[in-house]
Fold:
Amino acid sequence: MNPLAGCLLVSALLFAIGLAGALTRRSAILVLAGIELMLNAANLNFIAFWRFGPHPEALTGLLFVIFSIAVAAAEAAVGLALILAIYRFSRTSDVSEITEMKG
Amino acid sequence: MTMTLPFLILALLTLAGGVAAMTLRRLVHCALALTVAFAGLAALYLNLGAEFAGLAQLLVYVGAIAILIVFAILLTRGGDDVSEPSFSPAGLGGAVIALAVFAVLAWAVATSRLAHPASTPPAPSASMQQIGIALMQRYVLPLEVIALMLTAAMIGAVILALREKRAASTAPALESSSR
Structure:
């Protein structure tokens, strides 16, 4: 197996793991962690295509990963603040128990 | 050219960290496993020649987001909540969906011509100078947008986390007025 396909397979497996976690775990924090794993899998794809792609001198994949990391940091900060706000309101971080949004 | 041994070791470490983060029952253990997965990914980036992205990953994910997640777990008292059932119909459905997604992705990788180039190109160079020049010339507008977005996200997170104090001070008045 060549290195590019190996990277893509690792990334696909990581994405599937994150998706399974986000779909099955009941803690809102772990759902967010699963989403972070999926974002990281996408970043690994960008790096792999930058490294083994035809025009690495344009730095496109690398810079996309840097911007993506910044967006993910903002997303994690806002997401965890939302989880804290919901926890203060409903005293739980279990997504299967948070069933109402109004009131 | 085949995959190198360091790549395989780092990939196994990352995937093991990811699996542990999504399957362990105690949330604090999950956060630690997640940190291992993030560090493994940073090492993978370094292994692929992307020094700046690897170090940024190390700083942002291992340094900041892991700490943030641990704080969120401790603040929501999730550390002592282990009542999650290990097997449930919903869990089985999610696992089946994830498996199907992986099967489709793996099929696409296996059959794509793009994923099997005839030769592996030599390692490209991405020095700090090149990245800085690209950020200041071609990508200067996205850089400014990211700066604005980070500021907005920081203010938003602070406002969201502060809301309780204002609500607590106004809650008694609201309750008495509704009665």
